[in-house]
Design goal:
- The structure holds 2 protein chains of 2 kinds.
- Chain A contains 28 helices and 16 strands.
- By secondary structure, chain A is an alpha/beta fold.
- In chain A, strands 6-5-4-7-8-9 form a 6-stranded parallel β-sheet, sandwiched between helices.
- In chain A, helix 20 links the parallel strand 11 and strand 12.
- In chain A, helix 5 runs parallel beside helix 11.
- The longest helix of chain A has 35 residues.
- The relative contact order of chain A is 0.13.
- In chain B, 29% of the residues lie in helices and 20% in strands.
- Chain B folds into 2 domains: 102 residues, Alpha-Beta Plaits (2-Layer Sandwich); 58 residues, Alpha-Beta Plaits (2-Layer Sandwich).
- By secondary structure, chain B is of the alpha+beta class.
- In chain B, the strands form 4 sheets. A two-stranded antiparallel ribbon of chain B has the order 1-8. A two-stranded antiparallel sheet of chain B has the order 2-3. Chain B has a two-stranded antiparallel ribbon with strand order 4-5.
- Classes of the chains: A alpha/beta, B alpha+beta.
- Chains A and B meet through helix 4 of A and helix 1 and helix 2 of B.
Chain lengths: 637, 168
C-alpha cells in the first residue's frame, strides 16, 4: 500500500507507475531515486543567489538579506539573479535556434543538390514563408526559392542591417512597435545569445532592469528560432494535418523490432520513418513481425503530427520505456536526453544510439548522422535495432497494457482549414465569434516538460480539467501535450466528460463540419516545443483579425512542470508577446525581490505580459481564468 | 535511561556549502519553506554557523548544549534553562536582551535578533526527529548521535588504523 502511494507521488501515469515499481524491485536507479538522493537541494541555487561567472567565486548571497549581501565583485542579489536568468534564456535560445539552424543547413544542402534524400513536401508553405520574408516566388522553381529561404534563415543568425526576419515578420505590427520601443528587437539570433554571454561576464552589466530587457530581446530571438524550426520542418517534411494515433507504452509490441526515437529534430527521425518499410524484410528474417517506431519527447511529437507515429512517453519518464524490456534501440538526437539512459539501457538490453556530434553519451553507440547520406545512415541505425531484437526474441517483456487514442496534427494551417468548413470566405470568423459570445472563454497553451519535483502530469491534468470545464480552449505542445495525451485529453470521446457546454458546442460544430461525426479532441496538439510558434501564429492571426495587439487577447500560457532552460526562453517570449504566463515550478529568481516583482508585475507595463509563478495547480488555474476574464473585460466582452 | 543525541561535526567532511545555515533558518520560520521564509518578518535566523579558517579549514559550529552551560549560569533574567532531553533553551519572553549569554558563550553561537531584541540559539528543532541542519547536510559532516554511539564509531575507526599500523 505504501508502495502504491509512493508511486502515485512520482507519476499519475499508470504505465509509468508500473515501471517505477518494476525498477524498485530490480534495484534499477531512476530519476526519482536520484532526485531523492539530491534533496534537500541547495537554497542558494534554488533562489538564484549562487554565481560562478568568475574565478573569484563561487559567491553566494544570503537569501535572508543578511551578510554576505553582495558577491565579491559587489554584484547585488538583483544583479546576480538577473544575470543567471539571462544565461538560462540564452541557453534555451541557443538550443531552439540550433535546432532551426540544423534544419536551415539541411534545406540549403537539399537546394544545392547535396542532400538528395530530402525534398520539399509542402510547396505552398514554402511560398507563403518566402513571401512573408520578401523573397520573390513568381515563376521560380521551388528549389530556387528554398535556397533563398534557407539563405535568409542562416542570415538571421548573425548581426546584420535588418532585424531578425523570423521575429519581425511573425508578430503583429503593434508588437513590432512595442518591442522596438523597448529595444527588444533582436539583431541576430546568435548575436543575442553571444551578447548575453558578454553582458553577464565578470564586470559587465550590473543593472538588473537592463539585464532583463536584454533577456527579453534574447527571448524574442528564441521565438525566431522556434518559428524558423516549425517553418522549415513543415516545408521539408509536410505541414501537419489531423491524424489519429496512440500514446503510452502499450504502443510497444513484444514481437516487433521496437525503435524509440527520442530528442527533437526531425532531420534524422523523418529519414528513419521513411526507410523503415524498406527494412521490414530484414526484421522479419530476424524473427520479428515487423518494425515498430515510437516517439519519445518532442521527436515523438514531430513524428506524431506528421505521420501519426505513436508517442511512447515523455520527459521525466523517458527511462521507463526501457524498463518494459521491449525497446531494442533508443535513437537520440539532442536536448532532454538524460545521460542516465545508458545505465538503464545496460540493465535492460536496449541499445542507445547517439547520432549528433554535439550530443554523445559515454556508453552509447555513436552513429554520426549525415544529411548527405541520410537514408544510408538511417538504415544503419535501424539495423542496430534489428540486431538487438535478434538477442531479445522470445524473452519475456513487461509492456503495460495502456494506450490512449490521440488526434494530433493541429497546425495553424489545418485549424484554419477546419474552420473554413464553417465559413469558407472568413475562416477565423467562427473562432472569433465564439470567443466573443463566450462559448470560448479564452485560450490556454500548455507547454514545457515534466519536472521530477511534481508528480508527473499532475499540474497539467488538474489545470486542464479545470480550464476545459470553464470553456477555455486548450492547446498544447511538447511534453505538455505528451502529458495530456497520456491522460485521454486528445481523445474526442472524452469531450463530453471534460469540456464545458460552450466549448463542447464549438468542438462539435467544427468536428461535424469536417465529417468527423463528432467533436474535435478536448485539447488540440500543436506539436513539439519549437511548435510553440504555432500558438504564437494562431494568436497573431486572431489579433490581426480583430485589429488589436496580442496582449489584449484572452490568451494565456502555462509551463506547468517546466525543467529545461528552453522552457525559460519560451516563457520569456510568451511574456514578450504579451501573454500572462504561468510557471508551475519555482524559477531561481526569488533571491531578488526586485527581479521577482519585475517579472510578475512591472513587466506588464512594458509588454502587457507577465509571469505567474504558482506551484499549486488549483490556484494557478484560477489565476489564469482571472487573467482571461480581465482581458475579456478589456475587449468589452 | 536512554541517552540523548547530540549534534556532532566531522570537520573533514564540510564543504562550506552552508546548506545547514539555510535549513536552520527555514526551520525557524513561520512558513517552514524557503520560498515563504525569505520574505518573512522578522527575518528567520540560522543558529548554525560555518566558519572559515585560512587556508582551507571549514568549520560548522552549533550550540554544544554544554552540560555545565556558562550561558545558563550567567543569564540574569532566568531565561535560560535545560529541558528533560538536556537541550539548553532560551525563553524569549523572559530574555531582556542584555547579551550576557553572548559574552560568556565559548563558541559564539548565541545570536542577537535585531528586530526582536532577543537572543536566539539552537533549540535542537523540537518539532523534528532529526535537526534540520543535520538532515540538510549533503556530505554528512553533521551527525546526530548519542555520545556513546559517536565515540564507539571513532574507536572503531581508530582501531582499524592501529591494526593497519601494526601490520605495516
Amino acid at each position: 500500500m505504501s508502495d502504491e502511494l509512493n508511486v502515485k507521488e512520482k507519476s499519475l501515469d499508470p504505465a509509468v507507475q508500473q515501471m517505477i515499481s518494476k525498477a524498485d524491485k530490480q534495484g534499477i536507479i531512476t530519476v526519482w531515486d536520484r532526485y531523492e538522493a539530491m534533496t534537500p537541494q541547495c537554497g542558494y541555487g534554488d533562489t538564484g543567489l549562487c554565481c560562478r561567472h568568475c574565478l573569484q567565486g563561487p559567491c553566494r548571497i544570503s537569501p535572508f538579506g543578511e551578510e554576505p549581501r553582495t558577491g565579491i565583485c559587489g554584484a547585488t542579489a538583483d544583479v546576480m539573479v538577473a544575470r543567471g536568468l539571462d544565461r538560462a534564456i540564452a541557453a534555451g535560445t541557443a538550443a531552439h535556434s540550433g535546432h532551426a539552424k540544423h534544419l536551415a543547413h539541411t534545406m540549403m544542402k537539399m537546394a544545392k543538390g547535396e542532400a538528395t534524400d530530402y525534398s520539399i513536401k509542402d510547396g505552398d508553405k514554402l511560398k507563403a514563408v518566402a513571401e512573408r520574408l520578401g523573397i520573390s516566388v513568381e515563376g521560380r522553381e521551388d528549389m530556387e526559392i528554398a535556397k533563398d529561404v534557407a539563405g535568409a534563415a542562416l542570415a538571421d543568425f548573425h548581426e546584420k542591417e535588418t532585424p531578425v526576419l523570423w521575429a519581425a515578420t511573425v508578430v503583429t505590427p503593434g508588437r513590432v512597435k512595442v518591442l522596438s520601443d523597448l529595444g527588444a528587437v533582436p539583431k541576430g539570433i546568435d548575436h543575442e545569445v553571444s551578447e548575453i554571454m558578454h553582458r553577464t561576464l565578470y564586470g559587465v552589466d550590473a543593472d538588473a532592469v537592463n539585464l532583463l530587457i536584454a533577456g527579453i530581446r534574447c527571448g524574442v530571438a528564441d521565438l525566431a528560432g522556434c518559428y524558423m524550426g516549425t517553418d522549415l520542418a513543415d516545408i521539408m517534411f509536410g505541414t501537419p494535418t489531423p491524424v489519429v494515433s496512440k500514446a503510452n507504452m502499450g504502443t510497444l509490441k513484444q514481437d516487433m523490432v521496437n525503435i524509440a526515437l527520442h530528442g527533437h529534430n526531425p532531420v534524422l527521425s523523418e529519414m528513419i520513418v521513411a526507410v523503415a518499410g524498406d527494412l521490414e524484410k530484414e526484421a522479419v528474417d530476424a524473427g520479428a513481425t515487423g518494425i515498430n517506431i515510437v516517439g519519445v519527447c518532442c521527436t515523438g511529437s514531430e513524428l506524431m503530427e506528421r505521420h501519426g507515429i505513436p508517442s511512447c512517453t515523455h520527459s521525466v519518464s523517458q527511462e521507463m520505456v526501457m524498463l518494459t524490456g521491449a525497446v531494442d534501440a533508443m535513437v537520440v538526437d539532442y536536448q532532454c536526453i538524460m545521460p542516465s539512459l545508458v545505465t538503464v539501457a545496460e540493465c535492460m538490453g536496449t541499445k542507445i544510439v547517439t547520432t549528433m556530434d554535439l550530443c554523445k553519451i559515454t556508453g552509447a553507440e555513436h552513429i554520426e548522422f549525415k544529411e548527405e547520406a541520410a537514408v544510408e545512415k538511417a538504415k544503419e541505425v535501424i539495423r542496430v535495432a534489428i540486431e538487438v531484437f535478434g538477442r531479445r526474441k522470445g524473452k519475456p517483456v513487461d509492456i503495460p497494457d495502456i494506450e490512449n487514442i490521440v488526434i494530433a496534427g493541429f497546425s495553424v494551417e489545418s485549424i484554419v482549414a477546419a474552420l473554413s468548413k464553417l465559413d469558407a470566405k472568413d475562416p477565423l470568423k467562427p473562432l472569433v465569434d465564439n470567443i466573443k459570445n463566450g462559448n470560448i472563454r479564452g485560450v490556454c497553451l500548455f507547454a514545457g516538460c515534466n519536472n521530477v519535483k511534481v508528480p508527473q502530469d499532475k499540474n497539467f491534468k488538474l489545470m486542464a480539467e479545470k480550464l476545459l470545464k470553464e470553456n477555455v480552449l486548450v492547446v498544447a505542445t511538447g511534453c505538455g501535450a505528451g502529458a495530456l495525451m497520456r491522460h485521454g485529453f486528445m481523445d474526442p470521446a472524452n469531450v463530453d466528460k471534460l469540456c464545458g457546454a460552450g466549448l463542447k458546442a464549438v468542438l462539435t460544430a467544427i468536428g461535424e463540419a469536417n465529417g468527423l461525426n463528432g467533436p474535435l479532441p478536448p485539447v488540440l496538439h500543436l506539436g513539439s516545443c519549437v511548435d510553440n510558434s504555432r500558438a504564437v501564429a494562431l494568436t497573431v492571426a486572431v489579433a490581426n483579425y480583430l485589429g488589436v495587439d496580442t496582449d489584449k487577447l484572452p490568451v494565456v500560457a502555462s509551463a506547468a512542470e517546466a525543467v529545461s532552460e528552453k522552457a525559460v526562453s519560451i516563457g520569456t517570449y510568451a511574456v514578450a508577446a504579451g501573454l500572462p504566463t504561468h510557471v508551475g515550478v519555482m524559477l531561481p529568481v526569488l533571491g531578488s525581490p526586485a527581479v521577482t516583482q519585475i517579472l510578475t508585475d512591472q513587466v506588464k507595463d512594458l509588454t502587457g505580459g507577465y509571469f505567474i509563478v504558482d506551484l499549486d495547480p488549483e490556484s494557478s488555474a484560477d489565476k489564469l481564468l482571472a487573467a482571461i476574464d480581465e482581458r475579456r473585460k478589456g475587449l468589452g466582452l | 535511561m536512554s541517552q540523548p543525541k547530540e549534534i556532532f561535526v566531522v570537520m573533514s567532511r564540510c564543504t562550506a556549502c552552508k546548506s545547514c545555515e539555510i535549513a536552520c533558518a527555514v526551520e525557524h520560520s513561520k512558513s517552514k519553506n524557503l520560498y515563504g521564509a525569505i520574505s518573512e518578518r522578522p527575518v528567520p535566523k540560522s543558529r548554525v554557523y560555518v566558519e572559515w579558517v585560512s587556508p582551507d579549514g571549514k568549520v560548522p559550529i552549533v550550540c554544544r548544549h554544554c552540560e555545565d552551560a556558562p550561558c545558563m549560569h550567567a543569564c540574569i533574567s532566568g531565561a535560560i534553562s535545560r529541558n528533560d532531553e538536556g537541550v539548553v533553551l532560551t525563553d524569549s519572553d523572559k530574555c531582556i536582551g542584555c547579551w550576557t549569554c553572548v559574552m560568556v558563550c565559548p563558541y559564539g553561537v548565541i545570536g542577537r535578533h535585531l528586530e526582536e531584541h532577543k537572543a536566539y540559539r539552537c533549540d535542537r528543532c523540537p518539532d523534528r526527529e532529526t535537526p534540520a541542519c543535520v538532515s540538510s547536510c549533503p556530505t554528512q559532516a553533521l551527525i546526530y548521535q548519542t555520545v556513546d554511539s559517536f565515540s564507539r564509531d571513532v574507536r572503531k575507526d581508530v582501531s582499524g588504523e592501529m591494526l593497519a599500523g601494526e601490520g605495516g
